[in-house]
Every structure is written in C-alpha cells, then in structure tokens.
Amino acid sequence: MPRTAKTLERLLRVRTLQLDQVRAAEVNARAKVDQEETLRERIAALAANVAPVAAPAPTFATSLIAAAHYRDRLHQSAHAAERRVVVARQGLENARAATREAHRDQSAIEKLIEREDTRAVLKALRELETLPASPRKRHDIC
C-alpha cells in the first residue's frame, strides 16, 4: 500500500470512531429529552392531583395553605422542567448536527480512498500499456 493509502485508511478508522462516538452522544441526548419530557408530564400530573376541589365537608385552613404551597412548588418545578426540556432539545439538535458533520467527514474520506484506488488502477493500466509487446513464439507443427 502506498503511503497515502495507509494514511487514508488510518483517517477512515479515526473518522469512523468519531462518528460512532457522536452517534452515541446523539442517542444519549435523545434519551435525555425523553427523560425530561417524562418528568415534565409527571410534575403536571402531580399538580393536577393537588388542584383545589369543592369539598363537601369543611377543611382546615392549614391544609388549604399546605396544598397551595405544594401546588406553587409544583408549578415552579413545572417551569424548571419546561426549561430543561428546551435545553435538552437544543442539545439533541446540536448532537444531530454533530452527527451530520461527522458523517460528512467520513464520507469525504471514503471518497478520497475511492479516488486513490482509481488512480492506482489507472497507473497500473498505464504501466501495462508501456510494457513492450512480448514476441509470440510460433512453433511449427511437430
């Protein structure tokens, strides 16, 4: 193998490893988005369960105050969860962009390898064309 072919093979291995790492990061980012959305839905369900309802019997003011405080904390958590979902989605978009870029880099190296192989084949054909013609030995009928 010529030196350039070895270099290109090494570059291809490196780019393939980088592509695999970036794909793994994208999978992690997708999992984080799913996790944050699940958390947001869970907080929304808890907030819906604490919503005030008409009670047939009178309740203590302290329980209403505690429920209001808990509901307020859940709403704050819901806002924080919404921000985390937005940040996770941005991270996923960044990971997708990095995956596209890594795939583009790997494809470029593959094209360079194909081009190098084509050059090597054409060079070998040119060398065959420049060889002198071998004389044929004609034997008489024995």
Q: What is the strand tally?
A: 0
Q: Biggest sheet: strands, sense, closure?
A: none
Strand content bin: under 5%
How much helix, percentage-wise, in residues?
Answer: over 70%
Uncertain regions spanning at least 5 consecutive residues: none
Number of helices, where a helix is a run of at least 4 consecutive DSSP H or I residues: 2
Morphology: rod-shaped
Distance between the termini: 47 Å
Oligomer: single chain
Structure description:
The chain has 142 residues and is mainly alpha-helical. Helix content is 82%, strand content 0%. The protein is built from two helices and no strands. The chain is rod-shaped and about 125 Å long.
What is the element layout, followed by pairings?
Layout: H1 3-49, H2 61-130
Give a nutshell description of this structure:
The chain has 142 residues and is mainly α. The chain has two helices and no strands.
Search tags:
about 140 residues, mainly alpha
